[in-house]
Amino acid sequence: MSNYSNFFRSLLHFGTNQPKWKLTVLVSSVGFSTAGFLWHRHQYHHYASSYSLHLKRYPAAAEYPQLTKHANLMARQLTPQMYAKLRDRITPSGYTIDDVIQVGVDNPGAPNRQYFGVSAGDEESYKMFSDLFDPLIRIRYNYGLDARQYHDTDTTKLRFPFESDNTFDINKYILSSRIRITRNLSGYTFPTFTTRAERRRVEGKLNKAFQQLIKEDNQFNGNYYRLSMMDEELQKNLANDGVLLYKPQTMSWLSSGVARDWPDGRAVYVNNDKNIFAWINQKDHLRFISWSTNNAKNNLRSVITKFFQGISLLENTMKNEGISFAHDDHFGYLTTCPANIGTGLKINIYLKLPLLTKDLRLPTIIKNLNLTMEEIMDPDIEGFKDCIDISNRDRIGKTEIEIIQHVLDGVAKLVEIERKLEAGGKLDEYLRQVNPSDVIYEIQTDETLQTEEKGILAKILNSLLNMQFDIRRFDIYRKIPKDLTQPTTTGAAISIICVSFISILIFIELYYFITPEVVSELFVDIPESGQADRIPVHIDISVLNIACQYVGIDIQDDLGRHEVGFIDNTLKTPENNGLGCRINASFKINRVPGNFHISTHSSNIQPEYGDMKHVIHELTFGDSIKGFRRIPNRKAFHPLRRFNNTNRPSHISHDYLMKIVPTIYEDLGYVRRYPYQFTFVYR
Question: Fewer Cβ in 10 A, N or C end of the chain?
Answer without folding.
Answer: N
